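re the bet — no i am not wrong, look at it urself. input seq straight from the record:
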Amino acid sequence: MSFLEIFTLFASSVTIFGFTVGVFSVYNGRMTRREIGGLIRETRELIARETEATRELIAREAEAMRQLIRETQEGTRQILQRITEILGRIDERVR
């Protein structure tokens, strides 16, 4: 076997190897982009769902807080009314 035949065999082997690696690297790149694109879509959907759930939770908590404030104000109003009545009676006795 001459040098030229060995070189041709080597070059063709390298060419076949390079072609195979090139094809699979393109395929791998496309699959990677497809998977990453899917993960990004899933992440966006998850963020949208969690954002909506967070808004609903905040709205429920705000309503619960408003209800608590109303109850506290009513209780305070009743206490102040009783104190006013007691002070009125005290004032009547003192006069």
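see?? Residues 13 and 92 are 115 Å apart (CA to CA). told u. also The mean pLDDT is 92. so pay up
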